[in-house]
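For consistency, the fold was encoded as tokens, as this record shows:
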Amino acid sequence: MSDSNPDKQRVIPIISDTTSTTGFNLYASEKLIYPRSVSGYFTNLRWLAVWVTQIIFYGLPWIDWGQRQAVLFDLGTRRFYILGLVLHPQDLVYLSVLLIVAAYSLFLFTAVAGRLWCGYACPQTVYTEIFLWIEKKICGDRSAHMRRDAEPWSAQKIGRKTVKHAIWLAFSLWTGFTFVGYFTPIRVLGAEVFALDLGAWELFWVFFYGLATYGNAGFLREQICKHMCPYARFQSAMFDRDTLVVTYDQARGDPRGSRSRKADPIKLNLGACVDCDLCVQVCPTGIDIRNGLQYECIGCGACADACDTVMDKMGYKRGLVKYATENALANGWSKAQTWRHVLRPRILIYSSVLMAIVLALAYSVHERKEFRVDVVRDRGVMARIVEGGKIENVYRLQVMNASEAVRQYKVTISGLPGLEISSDNLVSVGAAQTHWMVVRAVLPFGAAEPGSHKIKFRIYSIDMDDEESEKSTFIVPIN
């Protein structure tokens, strides 16, 4: 957060003591955090994740697939388009499996290397990085920003903050516009924006998502990770002593103390840590990694990059702050030994189960037929005797064409001797459309005993040489 004096403390709740006239603080005060810029291996990985995720998010709605948007969740027609797939409400099982895959992946990645999702791909982290970059370009790096915030208000200070917040707000609204573009065709949405003709719900969600981005990435920042995100609270249940986490090598670093580059730390009875506090200054949540593993740590590795830079300047070996496991630090394991313990039975079981689910999902999608049929007996029409002395039952068939071309379908019926369809049994269904057709089935009088009889409808795709079958019942009335 950046728009207050660096010495100003966050507002904290005050609750009055019912037995006293004196109030008391529920929580300790927290100073505003001004993260310092840093460069290094993990920072580069983090920015790579920013670029990849945002290119996908902002670019995907503008890609066409045939005559439509490549990815579109059309709630109005209740159809989801994902590249070549057209999903109907009946395909909800795929969403359920995807959620299972996402949850299992979270368990697996957390057991392997802690809060990787939080540090590299979580939208809160990604947008905070982008907002911080914009802030740095306008307000300067950490020291300049803190100095300017401490200065009295002036035209220049107001101007900088106005420009910063204007860019933040414009970026946030563009993010909200892109989000809604996954549910309303984005080119149609853009035309509505320029014509000032947005629908009420579209307008609401553009501003809701945009202002949420503006507030979370511009103001709340680390408070989301520390206090509002539930993952920070239950992550410890997925950690163990062989989980890779960002750690400080206390045995090598302590006792801490400043010294010149030429000084011999052994003679000074000092460890490798020069106590520069850069690891704290670059931390987006403001923690000191030297105090051990903390739930606020999002595993971004910024402190490791900052420490490695200092170690290089001092001529010391890198890795005072690094990704390691508790057992590796305690036993002095090499990287090879550490990784052998990281790939423990728990991880192999998680990986096997996750792979099995993903393969099953891929197979199911690959074998998914391009059409589906539901058969419903028309309960508004009783079984009756019609012309020719035949018994008639009426059915309603819902034919769903999941392909993106017009298809022709033929309906046949079987299950009783002499059973046939007396109505039109051919139907044409438009691309990605659903069509209800009425089917009248007739049976010669006396061909079956009174009661309910099982029958089967077969629906053939004339164009694709494919078929579906659905069971139903035929009612023969009592004489």
Notes: Residues 1-23 have pLDDT under 50 and may be disordered.
